[in-house]
Design brief:
Layout (H helix, E strand, L loop, with lengths): L1 H4 L3 H13 L7 H11 L5 H27 L5
């Protein structure tokens, strides 16, 4: 996880915002996939991978925060 410590939070936040909102037109993929999930049509592996891909920067933010809290000796 050392590579994660080298990535600044600002870059991760910008990446998370851009990936969550991409593509900007006609609607963001995450909105489309959420609607597919709500309707029960999110079944194709490519669509599930797409959700993971668009959430990846947010997942990295969570991992970076979690590892930084553990390195600092903060108890859960």
């Amino acid at each position: 996880m050392k590579f994660l410590n080298n990535i600044p939070y600002s870059s991760l936040f910008m990446g998370a915002i851009l990936m969550a909102m991409a593509p900007f037109f006609p609607e963001p993929h995450l909105v489309e996939k959420f609607n597919m999930f709500k309707n029960g049509t999110l079944t194709k592996p490519l669509d599930i991978f797409d959700v993971f891909w668009h959430f990846l920067p947010a997942i990295l933010i969570g991992l970076k925060y979690y590892t930084s809290q553990n390195e600092n000796g903060v108890e859960k």
